[in-house]
Amino acid sequence: MDSFLTAALPWVKSLHIISVIAWMAGMLYLPRLYVYHCDKAAGSEASEMLKIMERRLLRAIINPAMIAAFIFGGLMLLTPGVIDWSDWWVHAKLVLVVIMTAMHGLFSRWRREFAEDRNHRSARFYRMANEVPTVLMIAIVFLVVVKP
Question: Rounded to an integer, what distance in angstroms lies between the CA atom of residue 132 and that of residue 148?
Answer without folding.
Answer: 22
